[in-house]
Amino acid sequence: MSVLYKYCDQLGIVKILGSLELKLPYIAQVNDPFECSPVFYCPDDKPAMREQCLRTFERNRCSPSAEWEHKLNELYETGELRKMLEKGMRDGIREENRRNCLLSVSETAKEPVMWAHYAERHKGGVIGIDFDNICPTTNMPVGIEMRSVNYSENRPKMNILHEFTLENAWEIALTKSLAWSYEKEFRSLFDDATLRKLSHQDLTCLRDFNGKKTWFLQLNPESIRKVVFGLYTEESLKSSIRKLVERPELQHVKLYQAEKSEIYTFNLKDIA
Question: What is the DSSP string of 178-230?
């Protein structure tokens, strides 16, 4: 069992436990402007630049004009070709980030800074989810791949003369600044094609959320293993959560209370 933790504000934890689904934010919505934004570089390789241009023609389903080789040489000599290729790669990744989604969780429910930032200053809660059995299916639950984030001083680099692949997308999505290392984050990447494939299996759905089309991941009730109350979670919210986990499909969920310890982290007291 691979339990990871989703920090929630007061409204969010009730929505997740009530609907048994997780919102999947688009990559473009991440809160760090450096995230999922690689450093681009272009080797001085004219034949490779030519091949990249031909691939662009192929992707756009059009044929180069008779004069395109001459124009290519002009652009190469002036340095404009490199700028055009970089802009094309940058625009392409920006579009991918608008269509693809990230699911972000943590390996710990004990980090005070996470509680402050993502659980409404300790008033919300944390849900422990077994990602090996997260998706409900007809025969048996299935898991999704969660990968640990790499915290680095350097942004990932992207050769603009190489084809952009799903593994490139994973590398970019899994690299964050060292400043975020306290999050101990795990992520899963959902490209648009995967989201739509899962929707045909009723494992994801696309609907309006705050005026925008948003993807949601359906949860197997058995995958929800724990709920942790924060230091300042109000009794009214605790009561609402207790009622939600009293439903037959969630009666296995264990409840915990975050408590101060002698060090700068929390103890989790079993209150079930």
Answer: GGGGGG-EEEEEE-HHHHHHHHHTTSEEEEEETTEEEEEEE--GGGEEEEEE-
203 in Cβ contact with 217 (< 8 Å): yes
User: CB within 8 A of 257, min separation 6: which ones?
Assistant: 228, 229, 268, 269, 271
Residue 209 to residue 2: CA distance in whole angstroms:
29
Residue type, 62: C
Label the pairing between strands 224-229 and 125-130.
antiparallel
Under a CB-based contact definition with an 8 Å cutoff, are residues 149 and 36 in contact?
no
Question: Each residue of 56-82: pLDDT tens digit?
Answer: 888 888 888 888 888 889 998 999 999
Phi/psi for 225 (5° steps) reads: -105, -30
Residue type, 137: T
| Alpha-carbon gap, residue 262 to 31, rounded angstroms | 32
Evaluated on CA atoms 52, 56, 58, 63, the torsion sign reads negative
- The token pair at 124 is 């919300």
Model-level pTM?
0.91
Return the H-helix or E-strand segment holding 158.
strand 157-159
